[in-house]
Amino acid sequence: MAASWKSLSANPAFRVERNGLTVQLGGARRHRVTVEDGQDAFVLRSVVLNRSRFAQVRVPSTRIWEMNRALTLVGFRIDAEERLIGEARIPKVGITAQEFQAVATNLAAECDRYERIFTNLDQE
Questions:
Q1: Maximum Cα–Cα distance for the chain, whole Å?
Q2: Where are the beta strands (DSSP E) in the chain?
Q3: What pTM was computed for the model?
Q4: More confident residue, 15 or 3
Q5: According to CATH, what is the number of the domain 5-116?
Q6: How many whole angstroms separate alpha carbon 67 and alpha carbon 51?
Q7: Do residues 74 and 110 lie in contact, with contact meaning Cβ atoms separated by under 8 Å?
Q8: Measured between alpha carbons, how far is 104 from 17 in angstroms, rounded to an integer?
């Protein structure tokens, strides 16, 4: 049986919440990550731009494609709620706390970086 995502998140830089965690990124910046506990994998998601900000910024689909092309652990997409989100999947088999935390931190950092690029804010 795989460890729970909450036990894998034992790290002073992580604040575990009901359905996810907040990752402290350095300085005052932090980013929220939700965690879906699937059958075979953990699915981590983080909002880069909510619906209203996404409509204001108007990120072209070619820019999202470029973002995906440049990264390996994180993918970006527009979800059903018309938000720009980052997503990472982590197979449960053999997962360690170090691997889980590395992926969660990478997702939070990339989403926060694009949030800052597009809005210069720290909202999510």
A1: 45
A2: 14-17, 20-26, 29-37, 41-49, 75-78, 84-91
A3: 0.90
A4: 15
A5: 3.30.1460.10
A6: 19
A7: yes
A8: 14
